[in-house]
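Q: Got a minute? One more chain.
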Amino acid sequence: MADYIYTMEIRLTPDQQKGVTLVQEVARAAGMNVYLTGGAIRDIISGFQIRDLDFTVQGNPLRLQKELERAGARVGYADDDVKALHLVLPGNVRAEISMARTERYEKAGKPPAISPATIIEDLRRRDFTINAMALSLNPGSRGLLMDPFNGAADIEAKLLRVLHNYAFVEDPSRLIRASRFAARFHWPLEERTQQRFESAKENKYIEYITDKGIGSEIEQLAYEEDPLHIVRVLEKEGWLKVLNPHWTTAKVDSAGLSQLMKMRQQMNELGYTPDPSPAVMHFLTARLADKDITDMRKRIPRKDLVEGWRQLEEDAKQLAKRLSGKEAATPSRTWKLLSEARPEMVLFLSVTARQQAVVQKIKNFFTKWRQVQQKIPLPEMTELHITPQLPEYPKIASDVFMLLLDGKLRSRTETLKFLKPFAPPPPPPPPPPPKRGRAAKAAAAGTANPTVVAAATGGKKKGKSAATVPPPPAQKAAPKLESAKPGKDRKKLASKANKPKKHTGKANKKKKRK
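A: Always. Here it is, folded:
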């Protein structure tokens, strides 16, 4: 079980991993079992880019909306019919949380009857085997992969297989989806699936497609990695006319779309994660009439995508105006302005800008000015103890970079001269080691006896311990002189006291032997 969790964690981006954790915690707090399902599992196992996250909960996900919004998620669309939330999680991660349900179709082209269900029943109502898998995120079964239709084997075989005979009859939008998946993955339809596809196409079941199905398929084009290729395949199959009667590849701005996807890749490599979907829709419908564009926008379920598409050109004009004015008069001001702008706006403007000055500033922002960052003397800053541990470090590093951008620091010497005042003072010297033994006791008692201090500090003289040195003779003679009688007796005692003592005992024997 743990293998699939490990695979999920290494395949998801850090922002997607945070999104999984967020939804998991919110669902658990509400007492709902939660599963990662559908396309997310398919892409994790197949190795394709994980475009979005699909969750299924056993309960009503609309109850989770407020908690998710408090955690920073943006709700693009809440579908009360099928009980589903379309979200943008923090980090621009698209996600959908739907209720585990069954769908019963009375007639082709009619909305199904919805009922709450278990996760296994939910997997049975799906379109293709590769989308009918779920990974448990619940305690006790975390990491358990549910694959009742052997979708993992079809991923291994690179085949698209419908779950049952009436898949294309019940929901004709699956015909368009089959063509879209085949174009994206470059996988063929399984033999029986191909026969059912041709039969449904011949019997014109596509005429029963609902407005909701059309809107969902239009929206999915905005998230494709190679939308132009998908549109060409749909046109060949005749499905593009179904999405809009006047839509052809001739109505697509192919050059702009290609440039957009290249710029997106460049921004991704630099750590930016813009959502290109509004811009993709702009270029896919660049030459369609306004009436056709309005009709398509009405059918798309995610209103945040529609709003971003509608405001795209106006927001880009505002950013271009700011880049042409005093707000971007210097490289440092331009850098700050572009850094704070929404990545989606910078992406779109980099492709559509007509003013040469604006184009050059965006180009410098992604190329020339980033090379200036390499001139920041990081080793010398470390020697000056100006490191990320300092609270002021981000501001100091930013100030240095801005001055370098504007040419106000022209050399390494000037840069170091600027940095030195910000260096923190050197740390104080370490305290002396504490005294031990008799020396510490003597210092604590405040004694002034030099003999005791010398003995405690281990002083030596002529190879003998300082503790064995006798006190001066006067200190021993003085008491005897005071007690002596006056006159001759006093003089005799004084003379005896001053005479050297004779060596006796073992000392005399040593002399005789010598």
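A: The mean pLDDT is 86.
Q: Perfect, thanks.
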